[in-house]
Specification:
It is built from 38 helices and 23 strands. It is an alpha/beta fold. The structure holds a DNA duplex. This is DNA polymerase I.
DNA sequence: CCCGTCACG
DNA sequence: GACGTACGTGACGGGA
């Protein structure tokens, strides 16, 4: 018989989220030894819970106890103010699967575990505090969250669990300058940048407290705002009265949050040793298990690890890969068993097989899963009958022994979306997109390709077959063995199920093994942060952009193609006339022979293949000497390039279902952290010539929409100014003056006003050259000036800006010593060729100088992109493209200004809080009906 | 399949 | 003093 809660009782309410985040940040990224499941925050959480229920002052011992969690990010406050908590970054990927485990941990300790849909933990804590106080009992809120301080008083106190310090009315007054009953008024005025509570601009806690103190309460203050003496403050309060009232609603905690349990049900209970030990053993917490066992006088259960992670210190060889162990999953019962095992383990390697490489078109053929060495399976779903050319009506018949696609997807769906199950893939963006098109969301995710990239960019590529050979010593079955190559190539759906299963399940197992290989290396080699912050979060962002695609005016391109074809035909005729006979103008070989043998022109340079060079450089020189043929060939080439690569090719990339063009971004394609765009490449659409720029007119916004382009101004030079710490350059960027003119002025001692454009052009070339690891030869060629002159410019440049030489020397020395360089944000790029001798060393040296600069710029735009979806989620806008220093959006006409404001803000502040740059980042914006207008 | 060429940042 | 050379990409057509 439980006694009614009342006088003499003491309810403790633990703020669960605070415990979790505290535990997560206080501990290194521990993983469960048997399978690598991230578990650090759970360990810390259990430790804190245990200490809490064991320790404490006897007089303050709880009689009733509950841990309260936030249920989800969306609450009723978002209906009042959509931007509430909009700035919150999503929880780290390796923390997300731990959230459900902390709930389990709470229940394992036999403590009430409370969360309510649509409410924050704070709301439940408030309602419970009111109820307990009204019943005559005492309450202690275990949290240091200032939002809860309004609840203090009348038998309700707070305890800061980190400092182990009581928070009473005096402490609240110290923090807010007012008593607990006026805390919300002060918060409403001051706002909160962390939760994105707007408040009144320019008013902080100090001013707010002073105003509330003077006028008594918020409503009185707002009503009598006209009486305020300071004109600016008076106007702010009058202008923002509504926003302030909304802010108050956001911070106000009410007593009437619905509770579907009684205070009595929170009565402190002893843990059930068996349940608690079972949980701790499953998590493989040795110390905690022992401690709890000791406390209960029980024998600590032996922790058996199913598998052992291979580490450098204790490398345990896994058995070799054995394809005969794999299972083909043909019915729902077997699939359900596998999914149960996956849910229990909390981790799975996954791979999808499809009919093609274009993930916007390919159909799913099968899914493979792996939960451990030798424990892999393949679910065939779309294989066609063996030898069957099709049924009587021409449609392909499905092979026997496959479960219906819809059933398999329905069973997979909750597991793929389960926050507590980590999904590991190799290039998992591909699988995410295939599954997303079938209505399946996948998360949280890990990607072995990205792990390899974080560890070894610059060292080698990151395809699975290569990684498997290098790190597992295992040669994968080449896909060509199954589908052939060239003309006789077949689709994966035509591969017999048994054969496909071996191949597909092997891929999943290799992925699983690679994950176990790479995961401990990330923190050991100090690239875990780069992986977590710069690589992994890109997956959902890019998947969304790629699936959005961009609208193309194919007719516009086709018209251009026809016009180009006519021009080319005319030029061809003219060229043949000049050459004295027909030849293939597109053949450098034939052209070289005509120019340098038949016509006997000078300047013929033969490369290593023995062929004459006919590059634009060479032809331009010849044209400048007055020869017509090379000039016409240059014209022809320009048009030919535009036609074949753009106006002809782009319309073929329009997706039949969406009517848009969907590029694919490679996250690991470039060594520096830049993205690479393929199929089609939308990062090299012409812009430098008027004719080329017309191709951008074909990239159009939908009806009622606009294209917006936002690009960083001079980002690499700004980064150079920061990393090399060049005072003159930094000051120029702070003052917003023309950077190339400034450089020229410093170098040649001429004033910026009325500067010869030629002088500025030279300075600009040097500024860019520096970023690339300048050489006299390269600059001479770029500027078409004698090499000695170019060298003299460079010498002057280094004299004027000695910090640049120091930076270059420093970077090369670092690369030689460590074998890698790092960007400001911790991205690591290996420099394998740096210690070579001979000509190859020059290239490696320049690459090492360039990588931290190009890489930091890439890091910054990645950071912006990762924050962008959340920042613009309430706008009718989509992020479509990235072109290294530019982001392209499509937005409804009415929201253009909002988008520019918000996206620019995200981009300009993207370096923070990781790095506070010494120079400002500036973003230029353009709007139009198409990309040409917007750029 | 490699090479030369050329589009972009 | 000679090597070779601006940094990072992807797509196309020609030709073996």
């Amino acid at each position: 018989m439980t006694e009614a809660f009342g006088k003499g009782h003491h309810l403790h309410l633990i703020d669960g989220s605070a415990f979790i985040f505290r535990a997560y940040h206080a501990l290194p990224p521990l993983t469960r030894k048997s399978d690598g499941l991230p578990i650090g925050a759970v360990a810390g959480f259990c430790n804190m819970l245990w200490k809490y229920i064991q320790g404490g002052k006897p007089s303050d011992q709880p009689t009733h106890l509950a841990v309260i969690f936030d249920h989800s990010s969306k609450t009723f406050r978002n209906d009042i103010y959509p931007l509430y908590k909009a700035n919150r970054p999503p929880a780290p990927e390796d923390l997300r699967p731990q959230f459900p485990l902390t709930r389990e941990a709470t229940r394992a300790h036999n403590i009430a575990c409370i969360e309510t849909e649509g409410y924050e933990a704070d709301d439940i804590i408030a309602a419970l505090s009111c109820k307990a106080r009204d019943a005559g009992g005492r309450v202690t809120i275990v949290s240091s969250d200032k939002d809860l301080m309004q609840l203090v008083g009348g038998g309700v106190g707070m305890l800061d669990p980190i400092k182990n310090k009581d928070i009473g009315p005096d402490e609240v007054r110290e923090k807010f300058g007012v008593g607990p009953d006026r805390v919300v008024d002060v918060q409403a005025l001051a706002g909160d940048s962390v939760d994105n509570v707007p408040g009144a601009p320019g008013i902080g806690i100090k001013t707010a407290a002073q105003l509330i103190d003077e006028y008594g309460d918020l409503e009185t203050l707002l009503e009598r705002a006209v009486e305020i003496k300071q004109p600016k403050r008076r106007q702010t309060l009058i202008d923002n009265a509504d926003l302030i009232r909304i802010s108050k609603q956001l911070v106000q905690l009410d007593c009437d949050t619905p509770l579907d349990f009684t205070l009595e049900s929170l009565e402190l209970r002893d843990p059930d040793p068996e349940a608690l030990l079972d949980f701790l053993t499953r998590m493989e917490f040795r110390t905690l298990t022992q401690r709890v066992a000791d406390r209960f006088g029980a024998e600590a259960p032996v922790i058996v690890e199913a598998a052992t992670v291979a580490t450098a210190s204790a490398k345990v060889e896994l058995p070799p890969i054995d394809r005969s162990l794999y299972t083909i999953i043909r019915d729902e019962t077997v699939l359900a068993e596998w999914l149960a095992e996956i849910t229990q383990k909390g981790i799975v390697a996954i791979d999808t097989e499809t009919t093609g490489l274009d993930e916007m078109q390919a159909d799913l053929v099968g899914v493979s899963l792996c939960t451990g060495p030798g424990r892999a399976a393949y679910i065939p779903l779309g294989h066609v009958g063996e030898g069957a050319a099709g049924d009587l009506f021409g449609g392909p018949t499905l092979a026997e022994g496959q479960m219906p696609l819809e059933r398999a997807l329905a069973l997979l769906k909750p597991v793929l979306a389960d926050e507590a199950v980590l999904k590991i893939g190799q290039n998992i963006k591909y699988d995410c997109k295939i599954l997303a098109r079938l209505g399946l969301k996948m998360g949280p995710i890990e990607d072995t390709m990205l792990m390899s990239y974080a560890l070894n960019a610059g060292e080698h590529n990151h395809g699975m077959d290569e990684l498997s050979e290098t790190y597992l010593g295992h040669k994968c079955v080449p896909i060509k063995d199954l589908i052939g190559s060239g003309k006789s190539q077949i689709g994966f759906a035509q591969v017999p199920v048994e054969r496909a299963g071996e191949y597909a399940a092997e891929d999943a197992e290799v992925t699983w093994r690679l994950w176990h290989h790479f995961r401990p290396l990330l923190s050991r080699e100090h690239v875990a942060t780069a992986y977590e912050v710069l690589e992994r979060p890109m997956v959902p962002v890019l998947a969304e952009m790629e699936m959005a695609g961009i609208r193309i005016d194919a007719d516009h391109l086709r018209r251009m193609s026809s016009a180009f074809a006519q021009k080319m035909a005319a030029l061809e005729e003219e060229i043949h006339g000049l050459a004295g006979g027909p030849f293939n103008v597109g053949s450098p070989k034939q052209l070289g022979e005509i120019l340098f043998e038949r016509m006997g022109l000078s300047g013929g340079k033969q490369g290593k293949t023995g062929a004459f060079s006919t590059s634009a450089d060479v032809l331009e020189d010849l044209a400048a000497e007055g020869h017509d043929l090379p000039a016409r060939v240059l014209d022809w080439r320009g048009i030919s390039k535009l036609k074949s690569t753009y106006t002809d090719a782009l319309p073929t990339h329009v997706n039949a279902d969406t009517g848009r063009v969907h590029t694919s971004y490679s996250i690991t394609g470039a060594q520096t952290g830049r993205l690479a765009s393929t199929d089609p490449n939308l990062q090299n659409i012409p812009v430098r010539t008027d004719e080329g720029r017309r191709i951008r007119e074909a990239f159009v916004a939908g009806p009622g929409m606009k294209i917006i382009s936002l690009d960083y101004s001079q980002i690499e030079l700004r980064i150079l100014a920061h990393v090399a710490s060049i005072p003159a350059l930094k000051q120029a960027f702070r003052d917003g003056i023309d950077i190339h003119a400034m450089t020229a002025s410093q170098m040649f001692g001429v004033p910026v006003d009325g500067m010869d454009p030629m002088i500025r052009r030279r300075a600009k070339a040097i500024n860019f050259g520096v970023i690339y690891g300048i050489s006299g030869f390269g600059l001479a060629r770029n500027l078409r000036i004698p090499r000695a002159e170019a060298q003299a410019f460079i010498d002057t440049y280094f004299e004027r800006f000695p910090e640049i030489r120091a930076y270059m020397d420093r970077t090369v020395a670092e690369a030689k010593q460590d074998g890698f360089v790092r960007t400001l944000f911790g991205r690591r790029i290996k420099t394998p060729g740096i210690n070579q001798s001979g000509p190859a060393a020059g290239g490696a040296r320049r690459a090492a100088i360039n990588a931290p600069i190009q890489g930091a710029a890439a890091d910054i735009i990645r950071r912006a992109m990762i924050r962008m979806p959340d920042a613009i989620r309430d706008l009718p806008a989509k992020m479509l493209l990235q072109v290294h220093d530019e982001l392209v959006f499509e937005v409804e006409e009415g929201a253009v200004d909002d988008l520019i404001r918000i996206a620019r803000d995200v981009m300009e502040n993207a370096a923070e809080p990781a790095i506070k740059l010494d120079v400002p980042l500036i973003v230029d914006a353009g709007v139009g009906a198409n990309w040409a207008e917007a750029h």
